[in-house]
Each structure stands twice: as structure tokens, then as C-alpha cells.
Amino acid sequence: METLDAATLRQQARAGRFAAPTAGQAPGKLQANLVALPERNAFDFLLYVTRNPKPMPLIEVLEAGRYESRHARGSDVRTDVPRYRVFRHGQCAGEIADAREVWRPDLVTFLIGCSFTFETAMLRAGIPVRHIEQGRNVPMYRTNRATTPAGIFGGPMVVSMRPVAAGLVARVAALTARYPLAHGVPIHVGAPKALGIEELARVDFGEAVSVEQGEVPVFWACGVTPQLALETARVELAITHAPGHMFVTDAGDETANLEAL
Amino acid sequence: METLDAATLRQQARAGRFAAPTAGQAPGKLQANLVALPERNAFDFLLYVTRNPKPMPLIEVLEAGRYESRHARGSDVRTDVPRYRVFRHGQCAGEIADAREVWRPDLVTFLIGCSFTFETAMLRAGIPVRHIEQGRNVPMYRTNRATTPAGIFGGPMVVSMRPVAAGLVARVAALTARYPLAHGVPIHVGAPKALGIEELARVDFGEAVSVEQGEVPVFWACGVTPQLALETARVELAITHAPGHMFVTDAGDETANLEAL
């Protein structure tokens, strides 16, 4: 697949010409999960986000009526994600390419860090990323780990998984620790059953990838977590990215670390 | 002055027997700024906090009706701060020892990190802390630096100042970088006028301390910043700690760093 820069990817998503997962795209740029929900649920949701920084590292909040991310010049969060999910009363009611058809002026938008962000650093360090090699979406799983609830929001943590050669696991942990806005260090290494994952081949989101001899499955907290919280909370209307189909910013992958100093 | 442990200090504050600044108290424990305001302003304020992590590193939010910090067993945020300020329509209407007399059930409480937290580490590293030596409150100044606004909240950043021997400044910066929940690295070193501070002897909060020959004034973002934002926002009712009179938790001074990994 062709590798696009961030601005081109957003333009193509807007024009309906890019509707695929964004892993491997816009190398070195910060990628983001998107959740938009009504203003009256915004305090509970922001509190939920701040209480769970591992699955939901906060990048930016756009107040109701704001659509351009300060990390993506000329962007529009309603059109620049390759694929959206629409939730009505907590149920996923379908996927759409352009969210303007269902957007409402009272929706507040949350951009939350994504682990695709650190994959450029993995590749540069010579550590292969299986779902990029296989041209698939990253595998994601619902776990038995509860998030810390806030108001109407709560529920299990979702994780993404990357198989890593056993001899590289510690190095990958140290490397991803540099990217706290991209979920940072893994939350678990090696034992899917301890997370309540019975079979790696049965993903809850994304696509399964092969785990080879000598590789260990490594799990990172995932920004799809709030999509499960929307279900529990039965929020009247919410719009999210489709898992793996991220909002791509112009910010460098380590930018946020500098801001947090 | 006698050094109290965190639980004893909270008990004595509750009983009206401790009403002094908390610098040097409860060594090695996380100290916190307190802001309580009505639920209807809580989203704007939480957004303001997350947009300004340097002056307002968030430790905890207690929803309306909750008074015990999860970082301080048996605590009550309405009584355990040595001294409170009450703001009505943005104006400081006075200081009180027990906030229960003005508390309302719709107040949401925010605990925000405080630079007193890293002073134990400074002392252990052999770096003197002048206001502790002189038995005074820390000097604090309003600056010409604007915070990033959110909703009704905005305004200038407040800083605390500690004089540091020139040869120790870089070490102090590196040391305090380990405490992002206590404002982390200084925001400025050496030039008060660049921050709009005309005279170090004229403090806006706390008390002035002497700056000796060979020492440089070092400035950290300060959790009194939101008290100025309350003025601008004219919030109907807000309760804060009195500057320097912090809520002292049982959490170790580095605890939050581990949680954020």
C-alpha cells in the first residue's frame, strides 16, 4: 500500500478516496482515536478519560461547534477520519464515511492517543510490526480488566496486540515507554488468558495476525476502550472512528511528551 | 516547627490546631491544591485543568457529594486543609478554618499537584529550600504568561519561586523533572522581569524570601493559578485552599509518576 503523509491522508479521507486502517500511514505522526458525544455527557466522559490515562491518553478536546484540531492544520474532525461509527443509545448503528450527515452542534470531540503512533519508532529500531507486514488492521481484544468508572461511563479495557520476538520484548517495552500519549508501556506480556482472552485468533475488533514460534503476544491499552463505555452508558448519540481507522495529526509522534514536561 | 506526618496533620487541621503553611510537613508525601466549584462549571474547569498541566497537574476529582480522597484514608476535603478561601462571584470573600459552613452538595472537588511535594527530594539531595529555612510561606507571583483558556476559565499563570545557587540550577531542574504532578521542571530560570515580575520583594501570594549573592531565582508553575481564573469566571461559589496551606495526602511523592507510566 502507498504511504501517504498526514495532510494528504486527511484530504483523501475527506474526498472518500481513503477508507482503510491507518497503520503504517503518515510515519512519525501522532494518530488519534475520536469520540464525539453530547455536551451534557462531556464532564463525565472527560473525567472518565483523565481517570484512565493508559487506554485513553488525552490529546485534545474540541468544544461543541469546533472541528479543526490544533494539531492538524485545516482539518475537520467530521470528515477527515477514513471511517466513522455511529452509536445511538449505546448501540453501534452503522459505519459512515462522512460524519456531517449525523453531526449535531452540541457534540464535543475528544482526540485520544493511538498505539499506531509508536510503530514508526519500532520499525526504525528494526522491530517488525506484524499487522503492517501482513497488510491487516491491528488485532484488538476486550479484556477482563475494568476501567475506573466516572459518572455514566465504565466497562472493560480493550487492548491491541503485537507479536514480538521474545528477545526483543524488553526493548519494545522501553521504546514504547517514550510514547505515553500512544499508551506507553504494554499493560501485559505473554499470557492472553490472564486478560480473559481465550483465543488470539478470535479478535473483538480489527483482524487476527499470525504469532510465530519464539514470539510472545504483547498487549497495549487501546483507545477503542471508550466505544465499549458508550454501550454501557447508552449515550443518545455518539460518533467515533471505526477501529483502526484513525484521525491522523501533523504533530510529531513525540510532541506530546515535550508538552507534558 | 514540629514536623507532622500526613494523617496527623490532617487531623490537627480538622481539629483547628494546625492552620499554617504546609511546606516541610509530611515529608515525602504528595501535597495538593484544592478547588471546589459547582457541578455546572465542572466540565469547563476540568477542561481548563487538562489544557494546562504545568500549573494544574491533576491528581484527583471528587464528584459532588464525595469528600474522601482516595489518596488520603479517612480524609475529608471540607475540613482537612489548614485554611480555606471562599470565593463568591469571583471575589475572595474571606478565609475560614472549616469549609463545611459554606459547602454545598453540588460542589465538585479538584485536587491539583503542589511544588511542596518535591522539596523533600531537594532537601535529601542537599539543596536548601529558603522558605523552609526562614520558616515562611513560599513566595508566589502573578506572571504575564497566559494560560490556555477553556470555557469561562482563563487568565495569567501564577508561579512559585525558590532561590537556587547558580551551580545547582541544572541539577534542581533535573530533580524536579521527576515530579510532573508537582509541576515538574521549572518554567523559568533567572529573569523575573521576563515573567512580568518587577520586584521579588513584592509577592502576590505567600511571603518574600531573601535571594543571596550567587543565587538565581527559579520559577515553577503554581497551583494558585486557578484562583485567578475563578476571579475572571465570576463563579458563583468556589472554595480553595489558602495559598501555601495544602491538602496533604498519604501518597508517596513519586506515586503518580508510576501510575502515569
Structure characterization notes:
2 copies of one chain form a homodimer. In chain A, strand 3 and strand 4 form a beta hairpin. Chain A is globular and about 50 Å long. Chain A has 2 domains: 141 residues, 3-Layer(aba) Sandwich (PSTPO5379-like), CATH 3.40.1640; 104 residues, PSTPO5379-like domain (PSTPO5379-like fold, 2-Layer Sandwich), CATH 3.30.2040. In chain A, the strands form 2 sheets. In chain A, strands 1, 2, 3, 4, 5, 10 and 11 form a 7-stranded antiparallel sheet that branches. A 4-stranded antiparallel sheet of chain A has the order 6-7-9-8, covered by helices on one side. Chain A is built from 7 helices and 11 strands. The first copy, chain A, has 261 residues and is an alpha+beta fold. Helices cover 20% and strands 27% of the residues of chain A. The model of chain A has no long low-confidence stretch (mean pLDDT 95). The interface between A and B is medium-sized, with 20 and 20 residues.
Separation of the first and last Cα atoms of chain A: 36 Å
Number of strands of chain A: 11
Helix-residue proportion of chain A: 10-25%
* CATH architectural grouping of the largest domain in chain A: 3-Layer(aba) Sandwich
What class do helices, strands and sheet pairing of chain A give?
A: alpha+beta
